[in-house]
C-alpha cells in the first residue's frame, strides 16, 4: 500500500508565485497599469495570456524567461523534503496540481534536479509559438462554481484516483499539501483518514478555520506547516506507523 502526496506548486514547492515572478523579465520589471488592472477574478489564465503577449511584444525571448524562472527560491526545507520523497518512492506516489503552467514547472524542477520525484504534473498546458511567444491554455473545463474557470483541483484529483483504481492502485492515505484558496475544493473532497497540510498564515489555512467556526469542518485531519521540515517530520512518522 502506498501514500499519495498531492502538492500545489506556487507558495508551496516554490516560495513565490511563478506567474508574478515572470514580470521580472518585463521592461522596468513591471507591467503597464492597463494590463495589470485587466485581471478579472476566476480568469487568471486569460490574464496571463495577455501578460505573455506583452512580454513577447517587448522582445523577451524564451532563454531570458528561463534564466529568470530558475532563480525562484524553493520554500524553506523543500529541497530536503523532495530529496527524502525521491529516496522513498516505493512508499509515495507524488503529483502536482497547480494553476501555474507546464513550461514554468518543467524548467524549475529540471533545473533543481527534481523531475523524477513527481509521477504526474497537472497544470495549464503552455508552449512557445513559432514566433517565440509563450502561450497558455486552460487545463480543462468543469462545472464547479467554487473554482477558477480553468482548473478545479478536486476534479483533477478525483479523475487521477479513478484512473489509478483502474490500474489496481489504491492509497492508504492522501496527504494534500497546499496554501491557496483553490486548494480548498480538493481538501473538502478528502476523507477522514486523509490529511490536509495547510501552509501557516495563507488562504487555505484561513478558509479551513472559517469552515470549522461555521460548524462545517472538513472531514480530513488538518496539519499546519510553516517549513517543509514540518511536512518531512510528519511523513517520517507516517512511514513508521
Task: Looking at this protein, list some descriptive labels.
241 residues, 2 domains, two-stranded antiparallel sheet, HAD-like_sf, metal ion binding, HAD_hydro_PyrdxlP_Pase-like, Pase_PHOSPHO-typ, Rossmann fold, 8 strands, alpha/beta
Topology readout:
Blueprint: E1 2-7, H1 18-21, H2 33-36, H3 44-57, H4 62-69, H5 78-87, E2 92-101, H6 102-112, E3 120-124, E4 126-128, E5 134-136, H7 153-166, E6 171-178, H8 184-189, E7 195-199, H9 203-213, E8 221-225, H10 228-240
Parallel strand pairs: 1-2, 1-6, 2-3, 6-7, 7-8
Antiparallel strand pairs: 4-5
Helix pairs in contact: 5-10
Pfam families: Put_Phosphatase (PF06888)
Cofactor: Mg(2+)
Organism: Galbula dea
How would you characterize the overall build of this protein?
The chain has helices at 18-21, 33-36, 44-57, 62-69, 78-87, 102-112, 153-166, 184-189, 203-213, 228-240, and strands at 2-7, 92-101, 120-124, 126-128, 134-136, 171-178, 195-199, 221-225. The protein has 241 residues and is an alpha/beta fold. The protein folds into 2 domains: 2-16 and 74-125 and 141-239, HAD superfamily/HAD-like (Rossmann fold); 19-70, no CATH class. The strands form 2 sheets. A 6-stranded parallel beta sheet has the order 3-2-1-6-7-8, with helices on both faces. It has a two-stranded antiparallel sheet with strand order 4-5. Strand 7 (195-199), helix 9 (203-213) and strand 8 form a beta-alpha-beta unit. The longest helix is centred in the first third of the chain and has 14 residues, at 44-57. The radius of gyration is 18 Å and the shape is globular.
